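go over this:
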Amino acid sequence: MSWDGPILTDSGGYQVFSMADISTLDDDGVTFKSIVDGDRIRLTPERAIQIQQRLGPDVYMAFDHCPADPKDRACVTEATDRTHRWLERCVEVYDGAGGVEGSGQALFGIVQGGAFEDLRQSSVDAVAAHGLVGNAIGGVSVGEDRESMRIAVEAAAPLLPADRPRYLMGVGTPRDFFDAIAAGIDLFDCVTPTRHGRTHQVWTSRGRINLRNAGWKDVDEPLDPIFRAPHVADVPIGVLRHLCLSSEMLGATYLSLHNLHLFHELMRLIRAAIPKGELSALRDHWVPRLERKLTPDEFLAGEA
């Protein structure tokens, strides 16, 4: 990968949810039908850990069961209990490899519990009891409404050990960052910046831009005077749109780089604001601007 920073891998637990139509779930694990040749692929907690260990990341995740409906209490309870049983098996394999001291790799457990405060809180107890290096909150951003996500995060995050990383999986957008950080979250992962880049959408300091709009084709100015991503900072918007509509992969690459840069710079601003007690003010300034849908006419008129 030629990447000298930390690397995190996921266990395949999300695919239990997203590929339910081609998988069979039982208490021991999951059997997937290969989309390549139809072969059966068996994934258990033990195998999920062993595969990740061989990949050699700095952090890897326990195998969990993400419930199909975060508001169906029976479904969520079953998935959460299974997640706890699978975590015990993951920890056995991890401890057998010497834990973080022996392998140099950190295993994170995953809290489930859907949109139910009591289930989230009991899951925190079960996961944190293993004393792992870090802990994650899973089962959010899977199609539920924003209020359900808020309940899940605010119920779990403050109860997780404060001296260890708290990781929110599959989230999110700038608004999500502010809300989750206020609840105590430290770490995020999400496809949002690259998925939006691939579909020709970008965040800027003045609003969101959809380059499919024909009005952007003759705009010669760059995307953003504030968040200036390396390699993209001086490329005119009209050129970016041409690359995207020509199915030239450089267009999606440029937009992904810009989105990633903006998200990282936003996190830098957030880190600086927290010790000053200015997180709420920063949120009030940036969230409305970043969520605003910016038209070509507004951009050319210089409207903030």
The chain has a mean pLDDT of 94.
